[in-house]
């Protein structure tokens, strides 16, 4: 089941003061980017944040699940998705730990 655009917009509106936040369609679902860095996925109207050590410490009681079949486990954000301040802080500290994407090769 593909994610609903209203849910994607809601998630984007919740994440504030972390940089440029965008959602890009990927295989019928969405990748969440901050300043061109992939930080999470939205699949089946669920938010998954890429796991980091700092993110794990911040969340404390981590719930991990794969975003789709065959994917590595990510942090599944359910209860606190409506807490904009908390979600923004999680994204902010996760972005710091995630690697910078490699430049794309010109064709």
From TrEMBL:
It comes from the Bacteria. Residues 13-96 form the TfoX N-terminal domain. InterPro entries: TfoX_N (IPR007076). It holds the Pfam family TfoX_N. This is TfoX/Sxy family transcriptional regulator of competence genes.
């Amino acid at each position: 089941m593909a994610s609903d655009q209203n849910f994607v917009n809601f998630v984007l509106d919740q994440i504030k003061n972390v940089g440029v936040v965008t959602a890009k369609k990927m295989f019928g679902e969405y990748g969440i980017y901050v300043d061109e860095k992939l930080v999470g996925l939205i699949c089946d109207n669920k938010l998954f944040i890429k796991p980091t050590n700092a993110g794990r410490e911040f969340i404390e009681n981590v719930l991990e699940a794969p975003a789709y079949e065959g994917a590595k486990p990510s942090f599944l954000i359910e209860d606190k998705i409506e807490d904009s301040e908390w979600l923004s802080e999680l994204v902010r500290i996760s972005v710091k730990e995630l690697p910078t994407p490699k430049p794309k090769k010109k064709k």
